[in-house]
Amino acid sequence: RHDKCINIKPTRERNNIDIVPALQYRNYTQDFYKNEENYIEGTFIKTDKGEEIINYPFKHLENSYIKHDKTYRRYRKLVRIMKYLMYDMQKENIAEAKNVSSFKVESLLFNVNNMYYITNSNMKLGEHFQEILNILWQMLLSDTNNRWVEANGIKPLFLNNLSLIDTEKQKYVSFISKLKYYFRYFG
To answer: Domain ranges in the chain?
Structure first.
């Protein structure tokens, strides 16, 4: 058993399985007409430590498909490249990649305006990836409003506590900076 999931041991017929017990969560914050069918579906998980986690996996997936289509099918390709490089950097024990989550990496790219994916879509994929990294890095450095959201478009990407926001954001600034270097020389 892990903090959020139950581990089912493998048998000869089945591989190792992790199951996350979750309840359906309904977010009615956008329902102004008191319609019980007007909600955003999510999941509610209670960890072994007592932490309550609400996520929106269906909205995340829906937003991902929409963004991918609106960016001339570049978004998910660039997410895959960035995650692959992040895992590669983690295997190489590069400090800046150590505590970076793949979910947040995808969410960072989700926050990049579609216009940057579209206006650079004639570039080769590697060049386009470098350009998006530069844009993302500038966005992280210049943003003072902290309007970053998860790929579900609902929850804030960085914690609500202002001092923690800066610490968390700085971690990703450092990661993107190192990733730019890593991709240039090893990608």
So the answer is: 1-55, 56-186
